[in-house]
Amino acid sequence: VLSIRGVQDEDPPDPQIMRLDNMLLAEGVSGPEKGGGSAAAAAAAAAAGGSPGSDGSIEHSDYRAKLAQIRQIYHSELEKYEQACSEFTNHVMNLLREQSRTRPISPKEIERMVAIIHRKFSSIQMQLKQSTCEAVMILRSRFLDARRKRRNFNKQATEVLNEYFYSHLSNPYPSEEAKEELAKKCAITVSQVSNWFGNKRIRYKKNIGKFQEEANLYAVKTAVDAASVSAQASQANSPATPNSGTVFPYLKPQRAINNML
Prior knowledge:
Layout: H1 5-10, H2 15-26, H3 38-47, H4 57-100, H5 107-150, H6 155-167, H7 176-186, H8 190-206, H9 208-237, H10 254-260
Helix pairs in contact: 2-5, 3-5, 4-5, 6-9, 7-8
């Protein structure tokens, strides 16, 4: 009796297909349908610096809906592939059975024919899984990029972080206490503060010339702010005079500098 079950069991798994299978399983495309890739969506949201239960709930739902579409297409095409492979293999086996009535057919010949069929169909299966993985990666990338754009700090938070960075330029490594204080001022997390300083140090070292001008502006701003505080204290401790408002005439550029920053 001719059978292909033994041949299929003996075929070693393709390492590349195994990697693709693992990726599809991790992204929620293959495997049990319950959850619909929600774990992958939650991981994507966490990587983008947010939580799927907060302001990203709509995008999280969109991600799962589009991932479900990819899953549906994948399983539909995979079913067609498996059906075509099975039908073609059975067709070849029937031909071999017919030929075995007129000439002897060795088991090795049968194995060779079935192996050829499987190799041909295996390339189709790999293309399907590769294209599905690419579709998931494109979806994931767009989802993360969209969230990152919304996670940009506002101008006030950026100014607070830059002021601290340039005022501690000799050692721009804030302590944990300083990070917590900056996080409260900027309404962000301590982890985001740490990431910002890490990225800022890298950018500063790569292009010191460009950031030197920015450092000078913040140095002037800090000096002007300090002088302004000193002037207000001096005026509060001395009687008013007709020209008390012109004691520090060089303070006038403060607003212009603030606008520049």
